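Notes for week 9. Today we move from apo structures to complexes. The key idea is that a small molecule is not decoration. When we ask for a structure prediction with zinc ion present, the ligand SMILES becomes part of the input, just like the chain. The input block below holds both the sequence and the ligand string. Read it once before you look at the output, and try to guess where the molecule might sit.
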Amino acid sequence: MEVDLVLRNVSVARHPGLVDIAIRDGLIAEIGNRISCEAVEEEDLEGAFAFPGFAESHIHLDKACIMERCSICAGTLEEAVRETAKAKAGFSEDDVYMRASMLVEKAIMHGTNRMRTFVEIDPRAGLRSFEAIKRVRDNYAFAIDIQICAFAQEGLTQEPETEAMLDEALHSGADLIGGCPYTDVDSAEHVRRIFALARKHDVDIDFHLDFNLDPAKTDLPAVIEATCANGYAGRVTIGHVTNLSMLDPDTLAVVGRKIADAGIALTVLPATDLFLMGRQSNFSIPRGIAPANALSALGVRTAIATNNVLNPFTPFGDASLARMANLYANVMQLSRDEDIALVFDMVSAQASEIMGLRHDLAVGGPADIVALDAADPCEVVRASAPALAGWKRGLKTFSRPRPQLLKAKTTPSLSAISG
Ligand SMILES: [Zn+2]
């Protein structure tokens, strides 16, 4: 057999021991033990864990890396929205392009090859951020598939121009629509209009929802009802929903089953939720993270994602999903292998499914492969394992060799040290 590339000695899901992966014409030609073949190129990955790559299902490229333009005093959601809205008015297309490109490059080098980014479209940002992110999507298509979600961060009903701008974005290259009922003066009408736009363009929906810690303050019933009424099961995702963290197990079971039955997926954004929630308390501070593992057990499709990087919503970040999975698992006090393995799925297979993208390493399938410096998914999450290399359609997109410890050639004797 002649192939373009063979990756030797990797561990992959559902194959015992170390295997090789042979690649021809951008597709996986064979997965097996000690494949014998004529390969143009060979690489020994020395036991790295190979998988189809991390999937970032919720990130804001357009407003990333703006710390020096904003002040953070209260650390609340209201302040983050206000400060970012001010900064946004000054965004130019090139400015957004530069910041977004930097972050996408980081994500790629952390092993992410699928991404859904929100892009704010409103009278402040105009279509400038959207145009910039379209350029980013095209420029980095060699390494990552980017979906663009045209997003109404500042609400809709109080700024009627936004609706026409979202409509235009959906005509000119946006992949889906994002709503934010909590910033709208009329959240029910906001939900209704987002669904109307989605149906007009036949696109999926991703809502920022219930970003508070009061279970009584909720737009979830309206979203569930609209999802069912519009026949949108499997096409709606909700992000944050931090008030689910305040429900007792019996109530969570009832609400979780309603979300699952409606076919609505949930993305948890641990870094932002931890930073912005619970600001009303100065002791016994609630974590404010929706319990994704418990909701998954109730049948909800769940993902963990980065959300914001270095802005008033999250003054931290590096677009590493291994690190984000580790943060979530630690904060949620998980320890069992099955729980940790599910967390890995939430930044890979399940996040891909939310984006409607394929995610498997299979003979005949695309050679989209990322190698991580770990033996298996649990070690990736527990140790926040770094990425080593990635390939898209069989072409190498990044390399990040293992660090090397340079040991002293001779060890000084004890007598030499003590003199
Ligand atoms: Zn978000």
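The chain has 14 helices and 15 strands.
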